[in-house]
């Protein structure tokens, strides 16, 4: 991790900053000098990540406990961020949940839960921050998935929601281009986080799933949250100043292979 202060003076809002990819992204942006609004539901985890971020000299963070399924909580995220920092440069729509199951195995409640967290909240939050991003000519990075383009067996609602997020990224990139707001996504393969245990896998199943990842990612391993964080930071940085509407694979080459 570098300390070039690439994001010094920038304000970054990250959803799902209390765990996994979002937590690693917060720590990475902090190492580059950003001020951070960190949101999630788990207060203790959020505080711990904020403390790690503030180990970097001069970095200011706020934590906002919010359930993205609650519209007033989303409004509060934006209000607290703007009241504290006065502006917003980068939104990272990272929070998400995973539901395992086929059409026959999942319920309408599962469908609603996944679409509410992974898509509806993104739509609401993004709509609220666009006026602020317009002022800073800021940008948005969405955390999508390989599942947005490749049907992963037994994950129908998750795949559908990530496909919607890919199209959201592209449609919005076109809509906001005139305002000089860039919109991109990262599309990870399997990344070693708690998301699979949270979706119901026990420790053994989780271990087996990650072990199988070695065989199905051409680079011969699963990814680490920090590797996704670096790609998010790249897309959010001035190094990607002419890139918008991109859905960047961060998947060890998994999306380009065809089983044989
Ligand atoms: N891990 C992978 O293999 C992988 C691959 C491709 C894409 N992704 C995507 O990467 C993103 C992050 O996932 P992860 O692997 O880092 O998972 P994770 O460790 O389970 O973290 C998920 C984060 O989302 C937050 N979140 C979930 N539901 C929420 C809600 N209703 N309100 C507010 N926050 C909520 C969680 O907050 P609390 O813990 O505070 O509740 C947590 O911070 C997701 O969009 C996921 O789909 C992951």
Tally of domains: 1
Named CATH architecture: 3-Layer(aba) Sandwich
Number of helices, where a helix is a run of at least 4 consecutive DSSP H or I residues? 8
Structural class: alpha/beta
Poorly predicted residue ranges: none
According to CATH, what is the class?
Answer: Alpha Beta
Number of strands: 7
**CA-CA gap between termini:** 38 Å
- The strands making up the biggest β-sheet line up spatially as 3-2-1-4-5-6-7
Secondary-structure element order, N to C: EHEHEHEHEHEHHHE
Radius of gyration: 17 Å
What is the fold named in CATH at topology level?
Rossmann fold
Largest sheet: 7 strands, parallel
The portion of residues assigned to helices is: 40-55%
CATH superfamily: NAD(P)-binding Rossmann-like Domain
Broad shape: globular
Bound molecules: NADP nicotinamide-adenine-dinucleotide phosphate
Strand content: 5-15%
For the residues shown, what is the average pLDDT?
Answer: 97
């Amino acid at each position: 991790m570098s300390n070039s202060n690439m994001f010094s003076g920038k304000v970054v809002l990250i959803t799902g900053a209390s765990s996994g990819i979002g937590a690693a992204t917060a720590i990475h942006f902090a190492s580059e000098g950003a001020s951070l609004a960190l949101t999630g539901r788990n207060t203790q985890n959020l505080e711990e990540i904020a403390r790690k971020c503030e180990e970097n000299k001069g970095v200011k963070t706020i934590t906002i406990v919010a359930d993205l399924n609650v519209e007033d909580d989303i409004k509060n995220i934006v209000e607290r961020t703007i009241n504290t920092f006065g502006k917003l440069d980068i939104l990272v729509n990272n929070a998400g949940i995973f539901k395992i199951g086929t059409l026959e195995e999942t319920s309408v409640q599962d469908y609603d839960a996944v679409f509410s967290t992974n898509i509806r909240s993104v739509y609401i939050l993004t709509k609220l921050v666009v006026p602020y991003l317009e002022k800073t000519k800021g940008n948005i990075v969405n955390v999508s998935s390989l599942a947005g383009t490749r049907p992963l067996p037994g994950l129908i609602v998750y795949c559908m929601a990530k496909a919607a997020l890919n199209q959201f990224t592209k449609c919005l990139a076109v809509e906001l281009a005139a305002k000089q707001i860039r919109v991109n996504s990262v599309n990870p393969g399997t990344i070693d986080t708690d998301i699979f245990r949270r979706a119901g896998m026990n420790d053994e199943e989780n271990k087996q799933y990650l072990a199988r990842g070695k065989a199905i990612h051409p680079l011969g391993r699963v990814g680490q949250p920090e590797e996704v964080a670096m790609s998010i930071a790249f897309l959010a940085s001035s190094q990607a100043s002419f890139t918008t509407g991109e859905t960047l694979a961060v998947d060890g080459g998994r999306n380009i292979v065809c089983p044989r």
